[in-house]
């Protein structure tokens, strides 16, 4: 059975290993990344039989009263991909963001994530959660690659 809970100190090694596998071998940066995921921002982790199989992290941008949130990290261990865990993590993340804002009495305006154009699985995942491409930017994170800014709006349009 899959359980999704807020990340605690016990998830630190998961985030360190995630950083090292995706961004390089700098242990000090991996530790800072893990600390940011657990203590500065808000992360959720998916577990099966007490093993962390995935995580997602979101961050308030420009202060809570802006209503702007970035999802800046989502990963699933390779052997668990393609089984719906990513979709479940995004769903629970959106619920977490919505209830975080509601409990504090602030309106949520927009949630966004930046996805590389070649990440078809990620693009389809967020499109299925009512995100749309609001902007694109060439060479933003990688040379000769297009990044897409997927957004989900919560504000009322006139």
TrEMBL record:
Residues 2-157 form the N-acetyltransferase domain. PROSITE patterns: GNAT (PS51186). It comes from the Bacteria. GO terms for molecular function: acyltransferase activity, transferring groups other than amino-acyl groups. This is GNAT family N-acetyltransferase. It comes from Isachenkonia alkalipeptolytica. The lineage of its organism: Bacteria, Bacillati, Bacillota, Clostridia, Eubacteriales.
């Amino acid at each position: 059975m899959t359980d999704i809970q807020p990340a605690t100190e016990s998830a630190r090694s998961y985030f360190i290993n995630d950083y090292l596998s995706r961004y390089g071998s700098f242990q000090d940066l991996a530790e800072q990344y893990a600390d940011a995921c657990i203590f500065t921002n808000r992360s959720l982790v998916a577990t099966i039989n007490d093993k962390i199989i995935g995580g997602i992290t979101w961050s308030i941008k420009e202060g809570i009263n802006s209503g702007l949130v970035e999802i800046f990290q989502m990963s699933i261990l390779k052997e668990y991909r393609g089984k719906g865990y990513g979709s479940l993590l995004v769903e629970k993340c959106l619920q977490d963001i919505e209830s975080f804002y509601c409990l504090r009495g602030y309106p949520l305006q927009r949630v966004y994530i930046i996805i590389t154009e070649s990440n078809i699985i990620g693009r389809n995942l967020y499109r299925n959660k009512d995100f749309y491409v609001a902007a694109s930017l060439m060479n933003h994170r990688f040379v000769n690659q297009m990044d897409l800014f997927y957004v989900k709006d919560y504000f009322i349009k006139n």
